[in-house]
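RETRY 2/3 - previous attempt timed out on the joint model. Re-submitting the same 550-residue input unchanged.
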Amino acid sequence: MNYRRILILCFLMGGFAINAAAQDLVKGKQLYETRCLVCHQADGGGVPNMNAPLDGASNVVGTDIARLVRIIKKGYSERVALDGFYYGNAMTANPDLKDVDIANILSYIRTSWTNKASTITAAQVKAAGSKK
Amino acid sequence: MKNLKIFLAIVFSTMTIVSTAQNNAGLKLPQGFKATLFADTIGSARHIAITSNGVVFAKLMYPNKAGKSIIRLEDKNNDGVADKISGWGKYGGTGIFVKGKSLYATSNTGVFLYQLNDNDEVIDTSAPKTIVKGLIDRNQHESKSITLDGQGNIYVNIGAYSNACQEKDRMPGSKGMMPCPILDSAGGIWKFDGQKENQVYGDGIRYATGLRNVVGLDWNRQTNSLFVTQHGRDQLNSFYPKLYTADQNAELPAETMYEMKQGDNAGWPYVYYDPYQKKKIVSPEYGGDGIKEGGENAIDPTAFFPAHMAPNALLFYTGNQFPEKYKNGAFIAFHGSWNRAPLPQEGYFVAFVPFKNGKPNGEWEIFANGFSGLTGDEKVKNPRNAKARPCGLAQGPDGSLYVSDDNKGAIFKISYAK
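RETRY 2/3 succeeded.
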């Protein structure tokens, strides 16, 4: 095995990894468009006073993944305070989504618009979902 | 060189001033009307009220950066721009109304009354009378709008804290509750005494019911009756994709205007109004299929408008300044939609409905447009892109129409210049 072969192998694996991640974001975008967009809007900007924005939202790009997973699964019916504003509409629960679907949605919303946070794996969603 | 710079600066600033005046504060208006930016960035200005001396009061949804939630604005030199602005109050809310020297303002749970002096200054900003208290605020449709009749009664909207009275709000497949328990304490208009202090639900009466959420309401002095504009329900397609397409969802149900007499019922949550079939249709949460009619005990709308545009203010024009066709007609401030995707959003304008003998007399039309700040025929795609969102209306003593914006907090003054 020479260096060139190793390099080529690395490129190939890297390529697969990138493809796999891109695929997740495409699926995440599709799910976003069918489930989330009507309230959170195409630009992730939400609706003032009613539906919280995702773009630029501190808790969407933050580290409390368990909270995000819980909100997507169970919905949200309290007034939510976010970055100095309040949002009052109830959010729909999505009990039928699998961990991998939630991971794809979270990866999409955390890396779209101006958001530049990490993507999320199904294993992370599973781990977060088991936390109470 | 320095002189040239100063000269150019003067030229450019003069040009800016002239163009601002000529471009009507960015609004598109019918021939002969002009507008000025009466105020800007005062905070989330919901409803507005004007005294007989022309002093404007605005109620803010939240306290502004200075921590004030009711703003007083005066245009001392009468150039169409407020030059004396002050504020007070720590509670957010929507409703504000002036009757003589009585100034009413609402929080999301009650109504307060301030007394004005001869200069329309509040005599004691720290000690309003509490007229109504303890009204329901469950985050959704929580704003309380008010108007008064000629008899000293106050009418308060109490919005339903729900989309369609499902067992679980906005959850797919959750059934509508029968009867809808929300209607006992919300989803209608309550009538209270305008002077009596510390009234609670039991002191008032449920004047009208079956209204999901009313933000615009006005007492029509010609018909001596209450008119309201309702925000129709959301998400027919997201919850019932087999019954409604996304495009149908964008156009259903109509936003509606009702004349509400005591005891009237507008049908929410059991029915919604379909603007194409021109019928009251049973809500899918109550077994409807998009065609089945219902609401035998519910009244029909006086007028209806495209879906989801959010009519946030209603004003019957009684001034003498505007041309004859506007007399006694209805102005409606459409806050602008958010759930018409995939279609572009609609609203973000002030509409006009001509009235004759207390009934609509002709089609509604857009009166003032351009609040969104988008150019040409470009439509708002996402609500946050709209620069201004019309939310409140008030008529000045000279017959000018004022429009408030709860996004950045602009107030526009629209006048007719023959």
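Chain B touches chain A at residues 61-62, 139-140, 142, 163, 168-172, 235, 238, 338-339, 341, 381-385, 389, 406-407 (CB under 8 Å). Closing ticket.
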